[in-house]
Design a protein that fits this description.
This protein has a single domain, classed as Heme Oxygenase, Chain A (Up-down Bundle). The protein is 65% helix and 0% strand. It is built from 9 helices and no strands. It is globular. It starts with 8 loop residues before the first helix and ends in a 7-residue tail after the last helix. Pfam families: Heme_oxygenase (PF01126). It comes from Phytoactinopolyspora halotolerans.
């Protein structure tokens, strides 16, 4: 009798979230951005929304740095807030903080991330969704955005991880950490559900961005 190996947690997480991952990447706003159909101000608006999201994530991690579950996933090598602030300085001028406001979907997303201070597994779900996405498709998006808007360095530094020499190696180690953590089966399912929720929240931010820029209903 042949025994079929059960997929690892990281494999199941990836497979279960793939459809929503593609939906987020294929959002109308992102398609327009990649095609150069959004003005520089619209790109800057997206960057400001990213700042609110990553500020929530990197602030929440301060409460979990010593947690036995979440702590091993946390590293300053991933931090995006300093890069986002530098990008906004370049795109909008140094007084951008007086004007930046989170859109409703961004406010909802950031609030959900902050709730994860009480649930380490949920924090890992959001940490995984954001940063491993950044180290995968995000790197390719960054190259396109740099070309479309004629930027090099300031303005697109969010997409560059100068402290991670080999993204694939880092991602493999991250997934191994997911697989080696002693999650109970029910907890694994909760984490997968929260990853799916993170993708939905992210897609709602893109929809809000499209509405804010008068792009009409997302397709």
């Amino acid at each position: 009798m042949t025994t079929v190996d059960r997929p690892s947690f990281s494999q199941r997480l990836r497979e279960r979230s793939w459809t929503l991952h593609q939906r987020a990447e294929g959002a109308g706003f992102m398609k327009a951005l990649m095609n150069g159909e959004i003005e520089r101000a619209g790109y800057a608006l997206m960057v400001s929304q990213h700042l609110f999201i990553y500020d929530a994530l990197e602030t929440t991690e301060c409460d979990l740095r010593d947690n036995e579950v979440a702590g091993p996933f946390i590293t300053e090598r991933l931090h995006r807030v300093p890069s986002l602030r530098a990008d906004l300085d370049a795109l909008l001028g140094t007084d951008w903080a007086e004007r930046a406001e989170p859109l409703p979907a961004t406010r909802t997303y950031a609030a959900r991330i902050r709730e994860m201070a009480a649930w380490p597994g949920g924090f890992v779900a959001h940490h995984y969704t954001r940063y491993l996405g950044d180290l995968s498709g995000g790197l390719a998006i960054g190259r396109v955005v740099a070309r479309v808007y004629g930027l090099d360095g300031p303005g697109v530094s969010f997409y560059r991880f100068d402290r991670i020499d080999k993204p694939k190696v880092f991602k493999d180690e991250y997934r191994h950490r997911l697989d080696s953590t002693a999650w109970e089966p029910d907890e694994q399912e909760r984490i997968i559900d929260e990853v799916l929720n993170a993708y939905r929240l992210n897609t709602e931010v893109f929809a809000d961005l499209a509405r804010e820029l008068g792009m009409g209903a997302p397709r």
